[in-house]
Amino acid sequence: MDILNRLIPIIVFVGLCAGQAYAEESSDVSDYKxxxxxxxxSQEISELETECRxxxxxxxxxxxxxxxxxxGFPSSADDFDLVRGSWLLDERGDRPExxxxxxxxxxxxxxxxxxxxxFSWALIQDPYGEIISMTRHTEEHEPVSIPPFxxxxxxxxxxxxxxxxxxxxxxxxxxxxxxxxx
Length: 182
Hints:
Elements: H1 3-7, E1 15-17, E2 20-22, E3 35-39, H2 42-64, H3 77-89, H4 98-117, E4 120-126, E5 129-136, E6 144-146, H5 148-153, H6 163-170, H7 173-176
Antiparallel strand pairs: 1-2, 3-4, 4-5, 5-6
Helix pairs in contact: 2-4, 3-4, 3-6
């Protein structure tokens, strides 16, 4: 059984959208409450990366095999938008399931938040259940939870290819922190 299935029961989406954490019934960030049950272990993160990297490699081979991609691609909001956008434009009958994009790009988005903004992989609980999320809960910052897989999943029908670029443009800097100071 893969790590996502072991750690995440099927739940209603609660996430960060347009710069505000929200629950489906409320758009007020102050209404959203979560608690960190535990941070994921390095082994769990490694297993998650292995599973998600397989999906990403498949997408990269499908959409970018004719290009000489830079080392570490994808690693930025623009890169993740490019991968997701390529899937959106793919009209072939054997187009991968969107769940492949969710896993591949969601993990990369989480790693971007970890590397550039000091977030940690965690299992959280909110009013809707338990979910893997990126969290930061230090004395220097307000507690923040950004569920990367759900963020991608909820944008399947979004035709804009710049959902990650827009995320970083719209999220209040005080929620993310200064990437140069991490």
